[in-house]
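Dear colleague,

Thank you for sharing your sequence with our group. We've completed the structure prediction you requested, and as agreed, I am returning the results in plain text so they can be pasted directly into your records. Please verify that the sequence below matches your submission; if there's any discrepancy, let me know and we will rerun it promptly.
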Amino acid sequence: MKYIDEYRDAAQARRLAAAIADVTTRQWTLMEVCGGQTHAIVKFGIDALLPPQINLLHGPGCPVCVTPVSLIDKAVALAGHPDVILTSFGDMMRVPGTTGDLFSAKAAGGDVRMVYSPLDAVQIAADNPHKQIVFFAVGFETTAPANAMAVYQAAQRGLHNFSLLVSHVLVPPAIETILSSPDNRVQGFLAAGHVCAVVGYEEYEPLAARYRVPFVVTGFEPLDILHGVYMCVKQLEEGRAEVENQYARCVRREGNMPARRLVDDVFTVVSRQWRGIGHIAGSGLALRPAYADFDAERRFGLAAETVEQVGACISGLILQGIRKPAQCPAFGRECTPERPLGATMVSSEGACAAYYRYRRLETQEES
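Please find the predicted structure tokens below.
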């Protein structure tokens, strides 16, 4: 394991950990929602710095991980179409569906291209007018503005050979699903700073009031995470349940209003299926009727269907904070990054990938 000693601000991190220990008088269970925060916690051993009364759970904050199997299958099917160029971010390429992944579709002859921005896909559409270009639009609220801009620009440029395969999901409904579950153990949340930089944190305030659970908007550096834990534990110890902003250098309560307006113009809120979790009402985005011509599912007549993940993978339990990666019997054995059983081992933000990269030897010794 890489410990906090390798972090440039290790001494300050230890002081924050000591401050957390000073205010902690009982057991508390917190959840960080973002996969980027999970990787920082595991890489630097942040959880090992905390007092034993603090338990950190890893939440569903990996959009790649929660993309349903049925949409992976649709992307693979589109990649096999002779008139389609399927574009995607690299972290979607090895996410398994029921019939393979995008890398296997590419190996079979499909025109599958990795891009760094949805606007790259728009340019590919301009350069290939006789091909249909589909961008696999996956993400939380963070990536929605760029995908909305891609559709807006395609419409402005008259690029009718461009479309999105949309798998956008929203964080607050997923958190409410966790809080309302009879298996819930979470008493406080570290909210993802990059999501809140776009949409603000007003939507968390009703959740904090309804469920009497504190939320702290937190950044991604070890010091950010430790400071967020301190603020959250302090609220719990004082009997408060509020939304506080640790990441004030980047996040405002109202978020980024131009980005929000663009997203609201292009997308509308819909219900979505989450891989390993199930159907969550009002938890996704879909293209509005004005932009329906850019909907790949509609354009190619892809049938609506639900395919559940089966087999030994327990990623659904991991995404809900009910289990941790090392508690999966397949972890590091049948399931590895080279032969993943589920998306949490594939994605660069997946909890299983973090544990495999930074704690594989440690978990093997424990077992």
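Summary note from our side: The longest strand covers residues 278-287.

Kind regards,
the structure core
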